[in-house]
Amino acid sequence: MKEFDYIIIGGGCAGLSLAYELEINEKLKDKTLAIIEPRKEYKKDKTWSFWKVASHNFDDCVKKSWDNFSINIPKNTNHLQCTSYPYQSVDSGLFYEKINKKLKENKNISFFKNISEINSKNSFIFNSVPSLKKDYRNLWQHFCGVEIETQNDFFDDQIFNLMDFDCDQRESVHFFYTLPFSKTRALIETTWLSKMNDSSQKDYDHQIKDYIENHLNLKNYKITYKEEGAIPLFYPIYEETKNKINIGTAGGMTRLSTGYTFLNIQEHSKYICKNIENISKTKKFEIGKKYQFLDDVFLRVLDKNPEKMPDIFFEMFKTSPKTVIKFLSNKSNFFEDLSVIFKMPKFTFIKALFY
Ligand SMILES: Cc1cc2nc3c(=O)[nH]c(=O)nc-3n(C[C@H](O)[C@H](O)[C@H](O)COP(=O)(O)OP(=O)(O)OC[C@H]3O[C@@H](n4cnc5c(N)ncnc54)[C@H](O)[C@@H]3O)c2cc1C
Q1: Is the shortest distance between the CB of 189 and ligand 1 below 6 Å?
Q2: What percent of the chain lies above the pLDDT cut of 90?
Q3: CA pair distance 147, 236, nearest whole angstrom
Q4: What is the pTM of this model?
């Protein structure tokens, strides 16, 4: 059976981002790479959005970028600017196409459907398939979104809506998220932060239809695309071994308070690429410990006080949006952390330290 220097398990966002980073930095000229990916074909299945706080290789896959956003709670809306860190949406279809085209040019890179097809004994492995402990206490960000097209101009495409909490909360945390790609096209998502043992929240189609038709008052539209997912708001099991690194969601690249992962994956890929010659001895790349601690407290508050969360998110963004964006994107300094923390209800958060 064939052997390879490197193996990437899972050719999704993290696996392909890493392979691309290695390829464009000429790290695969004299090394071989096998990518293990079971899917039969690549097509658009996700819309990755984030504040651009760091550079990445996929500006040409960005569908739309915004400098303005809003947050709503019942009877109140906050309009905010993000000119310093525009919010970008990457089309996964364009992303897969760009990377696969590039990777196919290098004969040292091979694709397989199953790891049993190769000899992996002497390879260095980058694994992006998470091992998730089933625990009913775990929180998830689960969501469903549809891209819709209207006949007439309807959306203001200069501003996206990050969170609209003016909706049925069902004793949980629920909001709608709207990305207007043009005046006639938008992605509208229903998003829940909750445990997954409650299937009553999964009537996503009904929630979206009701929001579009009765909240936005839009009757004439057609659905052109749908995506659904669940992001674990807890770290997957990570077994430390000498010849293996976990990447992507499996590698703890999700910011637990927000679900944002894409840009962390890009930074992790750059880090691995920079250290690839000495990878087995390189220090593990992690989202900063302070964010791990603060997110843990934040999620405890969320778990115990779901009814308080719309106001907490709303208040948080009353600090300068630039500061909050840096905080949520793991780029804040000590003083910026403090200014976000001071916007939180102190008693609720202090109590959460002792749950
Ligand atoms: C619908 C959706 C929307 C999201 N939107 C955002 C967003 O807007 N912003 C953001 O920052 N994050 C977002 N995320 C979170 C995160 O960025 C994505 O989940 C991202 O795809 C994670 O990359 P990954 O490589 O870890 O996982 P994936 O992209 O899921 O890649 C894992 C790959 O492993 C393959 N695989 C599965 N089983 C095996 C196996 N046994 N052997 C080999 N391969 C296997 C899968 O087919 C898949 O291709 C979103 C997640 C989802 C699900």
Answers
A1: no
A2: 87
A3: 30
A4: 0.96
* pLDDT per position as a tens digit, 324-333: 999 999 999 9
Protein residue with its CA nearest to atom 31 in ligand 1: 12
pLDDT, mean of residues 118-123: 96
Instruction: Report CA-CA distances (Å) from 99 to 25, 111, 345.
Output: 14, 13, 45
Q: Is residue 193 within 8 Å of 141, Cβ to Cβ?
A: yes
| Ligand 1 site, residue 50, Cβ cutoff 6 A | yes
Is the distance from the beta carbon of residue 318 to the nearest atom of ligand 1 less than 6 Å?
Answer: no
Distances (CA, A) of 211 to 74, 139, 141, 172, 205: 14, 24, 19, 17, 10
**Residue among 7, 17, 48 to mutate when testing ligand 1 (max atoms within 8 A of CB):** 48
CB neighbourhood size of 170 (10 A): 14
Q: Which residue has the tokens 């009701």?
A: 210
Q: Ligand 1: which residue has its CA nearest to atom 46?
A: 10
pLDDT of residue 240: 80
- Residue at token pair 């708001």: 233
Q: Which atom of ligand 1 is nearest to the CA of 130?
A: 26
Residue 202 main-chain phi, psi, to 5 deg: -95, 15
